[in-house]
Amino acid sequence: MDTLREFNTVNDYNLFNNNETKHPLISVVDLSKADPRSGSRMYFGFYTVFLKDVICGDLVYGRATYDYQDGTLVFIGPGQVAGVNSNGETYQPKGYALIFHPDLLHGSDLGRHMATDYTFFNYQSNEALHLSERERTIVLDCFAKIDYELEHGIDKHSKKLILSTLELFLNYCDRFYDRQFITRENVHQGILARFENLLNDYFASEELQISGMPTVGYCAEKLFLSPNYFGDLIKKETGRTAQDYIQSKLINAAKESLSDGSKTVSQIAYALGFKYPQHFARLFKKHVGATPMEFRAANDGNIGLN
């Protein structure tokens, strides 16, 4: 597992797996053609999607093992390192990998919204996509359509058809992740409860005054999730972004302090981790529709600002 293999081009990975390179920027790799090998870490300079038919060792990202089983899709973005830990034993890879270089997307609609629409390429451990048999059939159909175009040979239609099929595949994956967020609701409810407890403990400690409002990245790390997966989960479960959820907790704490009346607005701002009271006032007005002073005055007068 200590060996690091680098794959910077589609051809590099095709050669490693005994597959023909039909297009320099995209390939559907049949992993069963590869020679038996032992586990290693791998650097990918392109987008990679694994569909494994069987478990061949433990798929590893960083120091964590993927939540991984038969019929699971794993997404790896360019510049990431993943690998297989086979405990020193030789294994025969099986399944498929769809790989495509970022250069394929240049100038396309897909390229323009790749980073924002398909955040699952930045998910990490325990965040793989578990497919039903029907979903697996759809994935393999998309792979087959892409491979058909690659077999057909490059002509004036090739890029448009390949990109449209690739986008169709990614849109299906987005839908399948939505389904997974729902079917794993019990797991996710546990995460939401842990997130709420994490925020409660953070706001009750001195950490808020010392370090300021917790970031989405901080919360994700404490919950052992990638920031992207965590953010998508919170958005799908609550309808709000994780940052908005955190800010709402802070605003509620601010309202309590303002209603108490024992501290000035500046003292409240500093206690909530703001270096400058005007930044606190700006955020408060954005969420509440009134400045802290206006809220306090209305509260004192029982006008009922929320």
Automatic annotation (TrEMBL):
GO MF annotation: an example: DNA-binding transcription factor activity
Residue stretches in coiled coil: none
Keyword annotations: DNA-binding, Transcription, Transcription regulation
The HTH araC/xylS-type domain, residue ranges: 193-298
Pfam entry (one): HTH_18
UniProt-listed InterPro entries: Homeodomain-like_sf, HTH_AraC, HTH_AraC-typ_CS, Tscrpt_reg_AraC-type_HTH
Protein name: Transcriptional regulator
Upper lineage: Bacteria, Pseudomonadati, Bacteroidota, Flavobacteriia, Flavobacteriales
